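Most newcomers find our protein records easier to grasp once they have seen one. A record pairs a protein's sequence with a compact description of its fold. An example says more than a description, so a record of this kind follows:
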Amino acid sequence: MKQGAWWVALLMASSLCQAATESDPLLDGATSTASEVRGVLRARSQAVLASELSGRVTDIPFAEGQSFNKGDVLVRFDCSAYQAQQNAASAAVRAAREELKNKQQLAALNSVGRFEVTLAEARQAQSAAEAQVYQVQVQRCQVKAPFDGQVVSRKVQAHESVASGAPLLEIVDNRSLEVHLLVPSRWLGKLKPEQKFSFVPDETGTPLDAVVKRLGARIDEGSQTLLLIGTVPANSAGLLAGMSGTAHFAEQP
């Protein structure tokens, strides 16, 4: 190969290597040292609450950003129709109970057969089951908080009618956060649970003492990265889910 052609091939190879390095998603926005990777804070407890019945929303006590406690009522529905159905079902249960009692008394006097007593028992069980269904529907007229947290966004407003399964509220608990990192897959053999590292959120600039808790279940074939999940101190002030930052490992794994 002539000398000029050799130099052209070398320059082309160098350019390709440089382009591959610059497009590496592990290095995008990160520092130059291999022991630092980018990550994001995510909440362990977060949910989008949906309606379990069709109805009209009467009240949403908490607005975006407000805090609530586990068990607080987050959404109330107009429950008049369901309450009326439950009242009717409860009355049917009482009637079936009295009918069964009467049949049992008559059976003791040999005035009715065992078959009629069995039918009365079945009617009582059926009415009790129907009453239980309406009781569940009445309970669903209130959506209660499954954990302590804050309202991220309200998907509906008071006085709106929603269908079953419609999203109502997005909620999150910012007191228990995890840091999610995409680390090079070649670190797999060197990472271990309870390994310590620091995480600096861009928004605060304050280093956090983090601990490796678990690793992802598979390696991404395209980027050759592995998910690493670590924990940060609970109830750390000023932290919100979605913050991004840089993780610093004391030694390159």
Summary: The longest strand covers residues 208-220. The chain has three domains: 25-44+174-248, 46-78+141-172, 80-139.
